[in-house]
Structure formats: structure tokens, C-alpha cells
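pasting for ref
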Amino acid sequence: MSFGTVQVGRLPLREATTVYDDKVNASSGIRTVSISGQEALPPRTAAELVRVQDDVGNLMGALVPVTWTDKADRDGYYEVRDVGSKLLSWQGEVVTCDWNLTLQRHGADTEVDLESRLGGAATRNNSFGASGERWHAPPIGHYAYWTGATQPSTVTRTGTDGAMTVYRGVPVDVAPRWGCAVGDYLAGRVRLLDANDLERTGLGFALAASDWEVHNGLVRVRPLASSGVLEVSAYTGGAWRPKAWDVLTGGVSIGAFDAASVLYNEPELVVIRLLRSQSSGRITVDVSLRRGARTAELYVQAAYSSTLKVVRAAAEAGTAATGYVRATADDADGNRFIVGSALTHTADTAAGGISLAATTTLDAVVGVIAGGSGAVAGDQPADLFAQYLGAPAESVTAVRR
């Protein structure tokens, strides 16, 4: 016999032990649903139970799609209003985790729109007088995308979850609205996987510095122990195509990271902070990955001024352009790398990198030009750099139609 699942955002819970209590407040009209249950070892693993205990608490305040295997008529968009979890272990032989959630129901996907509130400047401050391109990538399977009187152009990017529509030239003064079936909301999301290959929710959990992965189906970032510090892979031609990148200070690789923490973790954006000890002081590298992006964003901060550099771990010839360096030739997979910065920098066209002297900070964008010399409009190097400069902050909320 197989047990059903109640999927709360990115967290799967067993439906077999779930108690469902539906209430409507007489004065406010707000409808809340209280659900509770128990996870146990077996059939769950110990790592899965720890994830449940941590991630139930991390759901507090989140807007989440919720689906049931056996109560599909309750599927919809909810806001998490209260949480609780209790982990019990009897010498590791029998482990249980009791959990409870109170959810405010916004409605079924036929009743509500999702609104993406896009913030930030139209163009990231930069040294080149370049204009950014405001873009937005809702989940795969969304429908009825609306941005008022101005209709954006689109580019289609195909990743591990399928084809994704990315909207280009989104108006600055508009919060896009779109519909999405509850079961489609997580398609194309940014995923953060821990050392147990479990997808994690929120912020409150330990992350191994040497064993994690973040990907959006198009770009994947993982730590390296040697031959660079980060592996940045592109999903093209039905497979992941990895390239190793190094971060240098004073001409020396910073080496393997000592610690990792999560700064932001939502389906539309994940930010990880990596920390490395120096002989004196420390250096941090913030890695950001957005839903629908072909590139990852890096922000390097050092304790003391030096020359900071982001470069291919294995030298690959590049060609400099305004704000970035891109590979001179297509690689064996038909792609080209791109690395750039919003600030004036020195291009290393022999090795494939950028550097900035006498500084404590360096922003960088690293990724792939899918299709190389044959990249389509929206995926060409100038487009990717403009999208880096114009990438907005995003907060998703549910609104009644």
C-alpha cells in the first residue's frame, strides 16, 4: 500500500497521518486550515525527519502551493500562519517527528492570480552608462501573463523541467500578474539541495560548505575542493555542461570554503553565502541564482584591499566587450562562457576572467551563452549582461481575480 503526500511548497509530508480541520472566522471571513501529522523512521530516513523538523518552521509566513494526493479538492494557494514540530528519538532506533501547520487559504488556482512585485532600480549602478533589461521568469506552465498596456517580448529557455518562457522588457511601474495551476507552480523553480540531496526550504538549517547544490534547471552551481572553487554548469543539449571557476585574491586562489549559510531561499531566488578564512581576516562569496536565469551572480567581499579576480580554472581564451568577457570560440558542447561585472575591471582574455585591483569587493556575473555563436536573441552575450544589470527583486503574492 502506498501513502499519499501533502506537498506544502517544496516540503513533502505524508498524508496518511494528516488531520484536516477547516475553519472560517465569523468576523473577518478569513478561512484557515489546520493540518497535522507524524513522520517516522522507518519509512523515512533520519535525514528526512531532520528536514521536516527544520523546514516546517522555515515555512512560517510563506505563500505556498499545497496539493494532496487524496484530497485534491483542497488543492490551492495558502499562506502559512502558524507552525510547530517535535522530533523524538529513541537511541536512533525509532524516530518520529510530529508536525502541525495552520494555513490561510487564498483559493484554488481558478480563483486567484499570482502577482510578482518587482522591485529595485531599472538598471544596476554601473561604470559603463549601460542600460539594464528588466526581465521576469514565472513558473513553467503559467498562463495569462499580464503587464498592462505594454507587452514584453519573450525568449524560451529549455532546462531539466522543460521549456520556460522568460519575459523581456517588463515595464518598471507594473507588477505582472499571471495564473498558474497549483501543480505547476514549482516547475522551473530554483532548488537548494543539501549534502543528503534533499531539497530545503527557508533558512534555518545547517549547510555543509563542501557539499551542496543550487540549480534552476538551466544553471547549476556546486562547490569544488580543487581546480577552482565553483563548478558552474549549463543545461544544454539534454545534459549538464560543467565549467570550473576560481576566485583569487592577490593572485592566489582562495581555496575550498570553510562554511556556508543560506541568506535567501525561495522558488524564484536562492542566495548562499560562502566563507573562507584568510591568513589574516576572511573572504565571503555570495552566490545568487534566479528562476529562468542563464547566469549566476557572485559578490566577493574581502577583509583587506587586494586584487580580486573571477576566472576560468582551466584557461579558455576570451574576447572583451563592454562590461564582460565572453569565450572567443564555441566549446565542444557548442556554448561559450560569459563573465562580467557592473564595475570597471581588467579583462583577462588569455585565461577567461575579470579582475579589479585595490578593492575589497567585486560583483560578477558568470554563466553560459547557450548556442555559442548561434545564440538566439535574449541569450546573446549583450542580452545576458543587460539582464544582469536589470534583474529585479521579486516577491510573489496571491490576489483574488
